Amino acid sequence: MTAKVLFAGCRDLPEGTGDEHGAAKVLTEAGTEVRWAVWDDPQVPFADADLVVLRATWDYLERHEEFLAWCESVPCLRNSAAVVRWNTDKRYLLDLAAAGVPVVPTDVVVPGAAVPWPDGEFVVKPAVGAGSRGARRFGPGERMRATAHVRALHDDGRAALVQPYQADVDTNGETALVFVGGVYSHAFTKAAMLTGPEGDSAGSAGAEKLTAADPEPEQLAAAEETLDAATGLLGMTRGDLLYARVDVVTGHDGAPLLLELELTEPYLGFAHAEGAAASRFASAVRAQLG
């Protein structure tokens, strides 16, 4: 019987960004039925699919609980609903820091709490957010503006994260290391997106400046450590994760720091990798089919 795989998108991106088309082609040629579907389309029988792969479900931010409930209704979801619930709230960074992962210093500010402002430049972002949507960069003299942004996030029902800005991003960007089936595949660099307090961006892959990258050994080691810690916290193996993207930046001391661990629906940058990367992803999908 032909295995059926659904790639889940959203109404604005019902077939994603096009980045997965190469992997879909490989899967189809290998005898796997692949099609795209909008995650909140009630006419789609997601429960009947052999595998549902979250790819471009980027409209869930305003409907977080609804999205989590949908994830839990899909029997064969990758990554799993338990992973999604943990990973879509950036407070997971505190869990990873407690597990010993070098993380960009992060404070969570809930309504009514005092804000621990960092020295120097800093970033305020929502705890539930994708890309750089809702994230803004402030200087040390802009705390009133930053306070207003924190208040706006609270008024929208979201906790805020406050992090010191890592200045190396302006020169070298972020390095995104992509893993499929728990194994390193490829990397790409994302140029700085936040240029100041008005530097809030849409956060879509198409708006970012991306280039292929060859990560430093220290960056790869940090990414490996992050995945080991995350899967330990989640009670699973790295092979249980169909995909992962580990975004690292260089800290003030020159060492890599984790900025984000993307386990839910990250852009995987196959367009910025050699052709075999899409084939590796297709093979990982087939492995998840058992």
From TrEMBL:
<dbReference type="InterPro" id="IPR053191">
    <property type="entry name" value="DcsG_Biosynth_Enzyme"/>
</dbReference>
<dbReference type="InterPro" id="IPR011761">
    <property type="entry name" value="ATP-grasp"/>
</dbReference>
<keyword id="KW-0067">ATP-binding</keyword>
<dbReference type="GO" id="GO:0046872">
    <property type="term" value="F:metal ion binding"/>
</dbReference>
<keyword id="KW-0547">Nucleotide-binding</keyword>
<protein>
    <recommendedName>
        <fullName>ATP-grasp domain-containing protein</fullName>
    </recommendedName>
</protein>
<feature type="domain" description="ATP-grasp">
    <location>
        <begin position="93"/>
        <end position="290"/>
    </location>
</feature>
<dbReference type="GO" id="GO:0005524">
    <property type="term" value="F:ATP binding"/>
</dbReference>
